[in-house]
Design goal:
Layout: H1 5-27, E1 34-41, E2 45-53, H2 54-58, H3 73-90, E3 91-95, E4 98-100, E5 102-109, E6 114-122, E7 128-133, E8 144-150, E9 156-162, E10 168-172, H4 180-198, H5 200-210, H6 216-238, H7 246-266, H8 273-294, H9 305-333, H10 337-362
Helix pairs in contact: 1-5, 1-9, 1-10, 4-9, 5-7, 5-9, 5-10, 6-8, 7-8, 7-10
Length: about 375
């Protein structure tokens, strides 16, 4: 009886891990959200350009009245007044201790389904500027906003990642951009780690790749090929050298999860899996790049090197941490072949079902 106890414990651990990943994937299908606030000082005035995903703004102002998944010109016209009011409430500006008020607000929606607000504040110049992102309290918990402040020439004066806990920043606009790069590196490193740890589609793909229990050499080849592939497309897409619409990328990521899950069941332990991983890694890289593009990184080809490198490093740190937790358990399970086969089958089926759900959601029901 004592010899059988480890088998039961290991089996339960693996099955619980698979169930947890699957249930987490269904419960948390999307990142809590990212938005961007680009502030520019232009000749005694401050121009604020805010960008949000439409689905985030839809929580606050219903735009898709017919439920068809988009916003027609007529629907936009019907809610323009509400959106302009929301825009005026989105940011609170104080300059030298006094409130600044937006003289006007414009609203637009681009082809990528992002909502843009533009506000103009007058009598704002060199001095102490306080900025508070008021919408963070009304958006899903965990939503983050990347705020940048530039002068009229485009020189970066300050940058900060805001969230509901730290939704305000005070900036001395006389300061230069010196010392901002190290802070940016830490922020985007943390963002990369956070994104991979909450990116349940990427995590399930990695889990499915490793589940058959390969030797260390094969695991290193799989992880290296995935890293090289997604780093390549992450860089090219962030710098806007290669484009792939999210309407293609997101379904393909879901399809990659389904494929690997099914392959684990029908053909466990396929040779040269690193080749398949490289191909799907190219697709996942476009998904990672969407995070930086949503924050305005790489726009115009400038200021992208530090965020790109640190974000990618954060993704790798997160992946290695997950692999370091999974692999010892998977390798230990491999000492009990019958139990390992059952665990691989059950875990892979759950992964494939989650991927299939995402695939339907991102195509048929999008």
């Amino acid at each position: 009886m004592r010899r059988r106890r480890p088998r039961i414990t290991l089996g339960r651990l693996v099955l619980l891990l698979a169930l947890w990943l699957g249930s987490a994937a269904f419960a948390l299908l999307h990142d809590p959200g990212l938005s961007a606030a680009d502030l520019r000082l232009e000749g005694g005035r401050l121009v604020a350009h805010l960008s949000f995903a439409r689905l985030d703004i839809e929580r606050l102002v219903q735009m898709d009245a017919d439920g068809k998944g988009g916003v027609s010109p007529a629907e936009l016209a019907g809610v323009r007044g509400s959106l302009e009011q929301l825009a005026r409430e989105a940011v609170e500006i104080r300059f030298e201790g006094h409130n600044a008020f937006a003289e006007g607000a414009t609203v637009s929606i681009d082809t990528a389904d992002n909502v843009h607000f533009q506000l103009t504040y007058t009598s704002v110049g060199a001095g102490t500027l306080s900025v508070r992102s008021a919408l963070l309290d009304r958006l899903p918990r965990g939503h983050r906003q990347y705020l940048t402040l530039r002068d009229a020439s485009g020189k970066l004066l300050a940058e900060q990642m805001l969230d509901a806990k730290a939704g305000a920043v005070e900036i001395n606009t006389r300061a230069t951009a010196s010392g901002t790069a190290p802070r940016s590196f830490r922020q985007f490193l943390a963002l990369g780690i956070h994104h991979i740890l909450t990116g349940y589609d990427h995590l399930l793909f990695l889990f499915a790749l490793l589940l058959p229990g390969y030797r260390l050499r094969t695991v290193l080849a799989i992880i290296t090929s995935f890293t090289l592939a997604h780093s390549l497309t992450l860089s090219l897409a962030t710098l806007d050298l290669v484009r792939m619409p999210s309407s293609w990328v997101e379904p393909l990521i879901a399809l990659s999860i389904v494929y690997v899950g099914v392959e684990n069941v029908l053909r466990p332990g396929p040779e040269r899996r690193w080749l398949l991983t490289f191909g799907f890694g190219l697709v996942h890289g476009f998904g990672f790049a969407a995070v930086l593009r949503d924050l305005g990184i790489g726009a115009g080809g400038g200021g992208a090197v530090v965020p790109l490198l640190s974000f990618n490093l954060g993704v790798e740190v997160g992946q290695i941490a997950i692999a370091a937790l999974l692999l010892p358990l998977i390798w230990k399970l491999g000492q009990y072949p019958a139990l390992a086969r059952r665990a691989v089958t059950v875990g892979s089926v759950l992964v494939a079902l989650a991927g299939g759900y995402w695939l339907l959601q991102r195509t048929v029901f999008s």
